[in-house]
Amino acid sequence: QVQLVESGGGLVQPGGSLRLSCTASGSIFSNYAMGWYRQAPGRQRELVASITSSGSTYSAGSVKGRFTISRDNAKNTVYLQMNNLKPEDTAVYYCKIINIGFWGQGTQVTVSS
């Protein structure tokens, strides 16, 4: 019933920017709190940023000031704008519907010179 389609990952140089998108279908998107998580090799999956149905946001300390989460309910889409990327940001990034614990497939972000 629910589908999450992620896009925007790729290879970028340190200091560069990427914008990740996650579009939901088959769901009542505006009712959901959404989150972006990441998992690097050898590490546990961690919360990067989240946004509630009312627009309240949270960002992890490691990305605060560099990453911004936002949503466009008319497009059923949540975004993660990533600026000043660092090699330690390299990971698979996952979109999650927090309310029902449903995950997207993940998209690879690699920051390397």
Features of this protein?
113 residues, four-stranded antiparallel sheet, mainly beta, globular
Q: What is the first-to-last residue Cα distance? A: 40 Å
Computed over alpha carbons, the radius of gyration is 13 Å
Question: What is the string of SSEs from the N terminus onward?
Answer: EEEEEEEEEEE
Give unreliable regions as ranges. Answer: none
Which of globular, elongated, flat, extended, rod-shaped describes the shape? Answer: globular
Specify the biggest β-sheet: 7 strands, mixed
| Residue share in β-strands | over 45%
Q: What level of helicity do the residues show? A: under 10%
Determine the number of helices (DSSP H or I, runs of at least 4 residues): 0
| Protein structure class | mainly beta
Mean pLDDT: 95
Number of strands: 11
Describe it for me?
The model has no long low-confidence stretch (mean pLDDT 95). The chain has 113 residues and is mostly beta strands. 0% of the residues lie in helices and 50% in strands.
In short:
This protein is mainly beta and 113 residues long. It has strands at 3-7, 10-12, 18-25, 34-39, 46-51, 57-59, 67-72, 77-82, 91-97, 102-103, 107-111.
What is the fold's blueprint, element by element?
Layout lengths: L2 E5 L2 E3 L5 E8 L8 E6 L6 E6 L5 E3 L7 E6 L4 E6 L8 E7 L4 E2 L3 E5 L2
Parallel strand pairs: 2-11
Antiparallel strand pairs: 1-3, 3-8, 4-5, 4-9, 5-6, 7-8, 9-10, 9-11
